[in-house]
Design a protein that fits this description.
Helix 3 packs across helix 4. The protein has about 210 residues and is mostly helical.
Amino acid sequence: YSLRAVHPFALDLFVLVWSILLVFRYFDRGERGRDLAFLGLGIGLTLLTRTVLIVSLVPFAILSLRSAGLGRTLARLALLFSIAWALSAPWLIRNYRADGILGYTATAGEILWKGVLPDSEGSNFLKDGRSYTAALSEADRRVLSTMSVREQNRFFLSRYREIARAEPGRVASMFLLKLKNFFWFRALIGNDYGPHAPRLVPLHQRAS
């Protein structure tokens, strides 16, 4: 509870570091099948926590290519994802039955769309402090209020694809910006937690 109360990124960072430790544990202990299976379970929990944390497998791929070559690395990755998806299966089935979406979240389209909005940091707020929903027109809001969760997801996915096709450079630059914000501070950090939380951020920045 205390981790989630501080910020969900606290849990995300814990899972990211834990996954990377499992990767190095696998290679340090002689690349045993049991450790690979345990890593697969760890990756499954990682995907359930935050799918973008799959980047924890980058060092695995690099080390495996060096020690075992491309063929065995692809086989290992296939096994890892099979175990991870098996662990995730109950949640994926639940999402499909509830919202008709086969995925880890029913709001993937909305997350992708707000992540590339101009005049934003890719978070829940625009740079002027307004919610990212301010980027929607009044007509969009009326239409969205009549849509199912699945239809809303498709709506936002189409908006994201429009931006990606028109400005692919923005997608790349916003990805790098969000990656920086994940490990460091962003200008509007704390806005999600009421008017007093942002005042404490300078103290935390100085302490760190």
